[in-house]
């Protein structure tokens, strides 16, 4: 981009930021107060935005309301966890049932956890499952199981991958807070040769992969790549762990079902908890039996809230009464159509959307490429990405600052149509900035 155009883009962004600051005085005041007791005013780094984050007061249905009285369509969808929105009547009924008839913190096994476990096993084709409090924990436990089962240590993972708070691989290396720093073999996502070589190398216990890298920007694994992982791992005696924390909502049986994959272990989280903290991991019974406490050498697996009554009831109600297999397939197809329309209206510009079904991410690659197979290959025009976020917010859409859109089930088609129009409006207002460079 020429330096003159770059200056104009910065000026447009500065204007958008100034409008945001003017429209959000209460959020600013709350942030100024929050920094006194929370580092950076925040307890979830992903929610920080400059110059200060918008503070949300409440949510209802598919909408949220900011402290500054702005009503927004929640397109962030709690990074895929808010599938049921903010006040789904079935979830509200389940909450009431727990509070009125079951109680919280019963300190015992319950028949409800069996029901929920059976539901998950049947739906996602796993033989046995255990519950945790987060997707992070689910992945840590799955890795422990794989190491125990294979008696090996190394884990093959992928650059741009994210498997939880201590399990990030942005930039192709373990994040500074990563656990077991020495035991990772980090490979380029969608690179078949390097992946096969890494899986066959000495001392590998498991390969842990997202079928679509969510935090990495909704980059989809190609069917060849995922099949290569499955086949190579099986030949090499390495366990194949599919992280379905984000992708289990993509089709009736998750991404594995849609792509015909049969991993040894799967991990779950997000929406499956019905709106409260949740995680689960499961798969082959011979691997999961490591956690059977009837055996003296069982792997310890505890967690005060693993079977908390709220998650067990809300999750089960959502899985069986709301997001039934038919609904999952229909919703995923609806998301796919929306994603295609977005890519139609952005064709020939620097804006493109990647993703699968109802989960997608806006990108502004510097080189204007619209096919992205690896997070590391994309350098984005950050100012454009920021401008897009501010402009969508002004149009009433709450998307994640990194460009993620994760649809809530009850979002009306009219709002999806309106978003497509707003994206068209963004392109026509910012033609000079989103135009592909002729020198390409
Ligand atoms: C693919 C994937 N795995 C694991 C996690 C971690 O889940 P949690 O935030 O519940 O720990 C996430 C969260 O974003 C995720 O996207």
Automatic annotation (TrEMBL):
- One family from Pfam that matches here is Aminotran_3
Q: Which UniProt keywords apply?
A: Aminotransferase, Pyridoxal phosphate, Transferase
Q: Which cofactor does it need?
A: pyridoxal 5'-phosphate
User: Does the record carry Transferase as a key word?
Assistant: yes
- Give yes or no: UniProt keyword Transferase: yes
Q: Which GO terms describe its molecular function?
A: pyridoxal phosphate binding; transaminase activity
Q: Which InterPro entries match?
A: Aminotrans_3 (IPR005814), PyrdxlP-dep_Trfase (IPR015424), PyrdxlP-dep_Trfase_major (IPR015421), PyrdxlP-dep_Trfase_small (IPR015422)
Q: Which family does it belong to?
A: Belongs to the class-III pyridoxal-phosphate-dependent aminotransferase family.
Identification of the protein by name: Putative aminotransferase
Origin species, per record, is Tolypocladium ophioglossoides (strain CBS 100239)
Q: What is the lineage of its organism?
A: Eukaryota, Fungi, Dikarya, Ascomycota, Pezizomycotina
């Amino acid at each position: 981009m020429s330096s003159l155009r770059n200056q104009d883009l910065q000026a447009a962004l500065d204007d958008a930021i100034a409008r945001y600051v003017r429209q959000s005085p209460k959020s600013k005041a709350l942030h100024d107060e929050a920094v006194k007791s929370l580092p950076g005013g925040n307890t979830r780094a992903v929610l920080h935005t400059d110059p200060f984050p918008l503070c949300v007061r409440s949510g209802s249905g598919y909408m949220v309301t900011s402290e500054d009285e702005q009503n927004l369509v929640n397109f962030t969808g709690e990074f895929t966890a808010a599938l049921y929105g903010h006040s789904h009547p079935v979830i509200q009924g389940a909450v009431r049932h727990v509070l009125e008839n079951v109680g919280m913190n019963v300190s015992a096994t319950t028949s409800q956890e069996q029901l929920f476990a059976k539901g998950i096993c049947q739906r996602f084709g796993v033989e046995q499952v255990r519950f945790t409090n987060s997707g992070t924990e689910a992945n840590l436990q799955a890795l422990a199981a794989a190491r125990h089962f294979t008696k090996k240590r190394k884990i093959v993972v992928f650059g741009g991958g994210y498997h939880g708070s201590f399990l990030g691989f942005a930039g192709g290396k373990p994040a500074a807070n990563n656990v077991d720093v020495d035991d990772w073999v980090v490979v380029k996502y969608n690179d078949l040769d390097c992946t096969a070589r890494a899986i066959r190398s000495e001392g590998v216990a498991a390969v842990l992969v997202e079928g679509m890298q969510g935090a990495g920007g909704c980059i989809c694994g190609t069917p060849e790549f995922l099949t290569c992982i499955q086949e190579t791992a099986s030949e090499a005696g390495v366990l194949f762990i599919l992280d379905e924390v984000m992708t289990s909502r993509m089709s009736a049986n998750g991404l594995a079902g849609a792509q015909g994959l049969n991993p040894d272990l799967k991990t779950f989280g997000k929406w499956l908890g019905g709106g409260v903290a949740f995680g689960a991991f499961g798969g082959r019974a011979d691997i999961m039996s490591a956690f059977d406490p009837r055996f003296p050498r069982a792997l310890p697996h505890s967690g005060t809230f693993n079977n908390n009554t709220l998650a067990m009831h809300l999750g089960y109600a959502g899985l069986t009464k709301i997001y039934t297999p038919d609904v999952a397939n229909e919703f995923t197809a609806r998301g796919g159509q929306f994603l295609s329309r977005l890519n139609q209206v952005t064709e020939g510009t620097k804006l493109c959307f990647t993703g699968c079904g109802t989960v997608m991410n806006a990108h502004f690659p510097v080189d204007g490429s619209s096919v992205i197979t690896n997070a590391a290959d994309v350098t984005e025009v950050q100012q454009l990405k920021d401008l897009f976020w501010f402009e969508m917010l002004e149009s009433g859409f709450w998307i994640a600052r990194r460009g993620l859109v994760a649809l809530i089930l009850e979002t009306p088609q009219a709002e999806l149509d309106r978003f497509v129009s707003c994206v068209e409006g963004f392109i026509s207002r910012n033609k000079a900035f989103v135009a592909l460079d002729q020198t390409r």
